[in-house]
Specification:
mainly alpha; 56% helix; HTH domain-containing protein
Length: 73
C-alpha cells in the first residue's frame, strides 16, 4: 500500500486549505525546488489513485485543479 510521506501530506493539506495557491507559492512556503515539488506531486497523485480518488492536475500557469470529492474527504 502506498503511504504519503510528510512532505506529500503537507502539500495535500495546503491544497485543501488553499486550493487557489500556485506551484510557485507552494515551492516558496515549503522551501522546495521545482523538481522536489514535481516529485512530491507525482507521489501524491499515485497515493490518490491508490485510494480511487481523482488526481490533482496542475495547469501550465502553475495552478492546481482539485476535484471536489477530494476536498470533501
Amino acid at each position: 500500500m502506498i503511504q504519503l510521506d510528510e512532505r506529500g501530506n503537507k502539500i495535500l493539506k495546503e491544497l485543501m486549505i488553499n486550493p487557489n495557491i500556485t506551484s510557485k507559492d507552494v515551492e516558496k512556503k515549503y522551501d522546495l525546488t521545482r523538481r522536489q515539488l514535481g516529485y512530491s506531486f507525482e507521489k501524491l497523485n499515485d497515493w490518490l489513485k491508490s485510494k480511487n480518488y481523482p488526481i490533482i492536475e496542475r495547469t501550465s500557469q502553475g495552478n492546481f485543479i482539485i476535484d471536489k470529492t477530494i476536498i470533501k474527504k
